[in-house]
Amino acid sequence: MSGGQIAALIAAGAFVLLVLLLAIPLIKLGRTLDEATIAIRKAHQNTDPILISANDTITHVNTQLERVDGITANAQAVTGNVSALSSVFTATLGSPLVKTAAFSYGVSKAIRARRKAKAGADGKRGRGGRKRSDNS
């Protein structure tokens, strides 16, 4: 064997070794791609039930929102009725009620003032209507 043939043989061996070293990562990469393909396929298969469930949930939520809209409309009507009732009450009973309260307050104040004035005039007398002396 000549030196060129030996060099060619060494080069061929190195090339085979290089191919074997590169084949291992390529095989692992192929397995990884297979697993990724399987995961994507499973995700695609499981997407349909999830979307169907989401659609059912949205339908249920829309039904509940329609009920809430009805409740809100009824609450708005009740609020309008209470406002109207309050206005009617204020117009019919509010003014006379305020006048009655003011009259009652005035009468009670006049009675207190009269009692105070009477007590001031009677304050100089002791018990039994006798005049009290300042020395006793």
UniProtKB/TrEMBL annotation:
Where, by residue number, does the polypeptide cross the bilayer? 6-27
Record protein name field: DUF948 domain-containing protein
Whether Membrane counts among this entry's keywords is yes
Superkingdom of this protein's organism: Bacteria
Region annotation Disordered: residue ranges?
A: 116-136
Keywords assigned by UniProt, alphabetized: Membrane, Transmembrane, Transmembrane helix
Q: InterPro entries, from UniProt? A: UPF0478
Q: Which organism is it from?
A: Amycolatopsis taiwanensis
Keyword match Membrane: yes
Q: Where is the composition biased (Basic and acidic residues)?
A: 119-136
